[in-house]
Amino acid sequence: MLSVSATPLPSVSEPVAPAPPAAVQDAPRAERRPTLSHRLEYAALRGAIGGLATLPWRQATAVGAWLGRMGYAPAGIRRGVVERQVAAAFPELTPARVREIARASYESLGRTTVEAAIMPGLGKQGVLELFEQVDGWELLEAARAEGRGAIVVTGHLGNWELGGSYVAARGVPIDGVARQQGNPLFDRFLTSTRERLGMDVVWDGHAVRRTPRSLRENRVVAMVSDQGALGLASTYVPFFGRPAKTPRGPAVFALRLRVPILFAVAVRLPNGRFRLAFERVPVVDTGDRERDVDTIVATYTRMLEEWVRRYPEQYFWQHRRWKHQPADTPPHLREP
Predict the structure, then answer these.
(1) What is the 3-state secondary structure (H, E, C) of 164-232?
(2) Strand 174-178 relative to strand 199-203, pairing
(3) Which of 127, 140, 232, 293 could, after both became Cys, cross-link 249 (CB 3.0–4.6 A)?
(4) pTM score of the predicted model
């Protein structure tokens, strides 16, 4: 696969409903009036981001790692959830190693949060320079050369926001399917930071309507594959041997519209820079739509698992990945 080098680091099982005609416009996001609590929370956030943005990149992300560690201890935010999930995914590990990975995952989440917040200040060139290695870029180019657009699935590993921003910075038209945040002020801020780097943001509630149109325009549509999405159906596939509820929308779109799927991940390297990797997800249409969809979903979930096994400390273990399971799940495979 192609490897692209950068310059030194600078100082972020039910079918989907049919899509309506292209002439139908997206419904606007529900405008929510910010509460006083929202305003205070947002003011504190913007103040913190403003202060971090004045620091060199490495120092700012180090602050993020420190904040993450505080979330693990002494705050203990979801610490039990994280340690139980890590232990379930890696039963061969000692308790000490489980705690080490858990603590590191909080540091990674802190870094990712700060990176995403200050990333727009780098500009497109600065984003490109954060990457030391890019593997499989030719796969994305080949997919778009087919003229039907491309779907990119990823997971909450490394810095998923930065991966999408890299694609946009390379001049590729990309839509990122995202959840609406609870704080409307922060939601607008997050959307604007993504858009400043060239990514169009699609609320997950609009994905069924918007995705076919974007693909017809030969755009890339990026979706996270390890959390539920509003308006997109899910199925249960193995993730570290346990059934996990996983969005099936990317697979349905790929089969229905004959669109290629790529799995992508942006992981942080020891020197603080990043590696972005693309892999083609096989799409086989046997005529059994339900089985074919489940096969594709299981494939990109397995790809994510393989990368999480390589970089377990960079996964978002704070999310209860096995919270929703089939009713007939055996007790030993239920949520840990």
Answers:
(1) HHHHHHCCCCEEEEECCCCCHHHHHHHHHHHHHCCEEEEEHHHHHHHHHHHHHCCCEEEEECCCCCCCC
(2) parallel
(3) 232
(4) 0.87
Low-confidence ranges of the chain (pLDDT < 50): 1-25, 27
**Tens of pLDDT along 271-295?**
999 999 999 999 999 999 999 999 9
How far apart CA 207 and CA 199 sit, in angstroms, is 15
List, in order, residues 6 or more apart from 216 with CB less than 8 Å away: 22, 148, 149
β-pair partners for 174? 199, 220
**Tell me, what's the pLDDT at 37?**
84
For residue 152, the cross-strand partners are 222, 262
> Buried (b) or exposed (e) across 81-118, using 16+ Cβ within 10 A?
bbbbbbbbbbeeeeeeebbebbbbbbbbbbbbbbbbbb
User: Hey, is 146 helix, strand or coil?
Assistant: coil
Indicate the DSSP class of residue 88: H
- Three-state SS at 22: coil
Q: Quick check: helix, strand or coil at residue 91?
A: coil
199 close to 175: Cβ distance less than 8 angstroms: yes
254 phi/psi in degrees, rounded to 5: -60, -45
For residue 107, what are the contacts with CB-CB under 8 A and spacing of at least 6? 65, 68, 69, 72, 313
**Residues forming a β-bridge with 154:** 224
Domain residues of the chain, as ranges? 125-311
Cα separation, 201 vs 203, whole angstroms: 6
How is 306-326 classified by DSSP, letter by letter?
A: HHHHH-GGGB-TTS-TTSS--
Q: Which amino acid is at 85?
A: Q
Biggest distance spanned by C-alpha atoms of the chain = 57
- Under 8 Å between Cβ of 336 and 87: yes
Please say whether the beta carbons of 149 and 214 come within 8 A. Answer: yes
Amino acid at 130: L
